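re: that chain from earlier
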Amino acid sequence: MPFNNKTNINGLILSGGLSSRMGTEKRLLNYHGKTQEEYLYELMKPFCDEVFVSINENQQTTLPAIQDVPEISVKSPIVGIYSAFKKNPDSAWLIIACDMPLVNQETITFLLENRNAEKYATAFENPEEHFPEPLLTIFEPKFYQPLQEFLKQGKKATIRLLQSLDIALLQVPDIQMLKNINTTEEYNSFKLSAMSSEP
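^ sequence. v structure.
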């Protein structure tokens, strides 16, 4: 593993959403000659002690997985993050959403090299919206306590929780790394663009 920053780190591929706008599971889309969950799993494995796919009760995967806990009723990616911490509260968690096809080794390397383990989290700042991007973030073990309190209050916006805490906020090397694909139209357009750029 190329990094050792005080605390061990596990990886979580966030993919437990309903994918209602896409009409099919985003984790199973093919951007790199394999499913996106397979791509991210292989990408994250060299950097993490363990890597898991975050799934809901209706999903199945052949990869190591963490199923959303049933006691949190809100529909939000924050449930996947909470479920990961409940499984291992002493680990830091590198979270990557499955709908970010342009995340690569450079992205993870930059995030880990600039990780501040003394903060609650290390995140990229979205340069257009100027908020922390919660779905491409390292959450430290100390994040678990305010996360539990936040959920007890019935709140679910991870961005709001990050904004309320002392976090390391990084400028992303390439804004395209934060691009997410949520609809069939976006997916088809992305695939066409990728094909046209091939030599």
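Helices lie at 36-44, 77-87, 105-113, 144-152, 158-163, 184-197.
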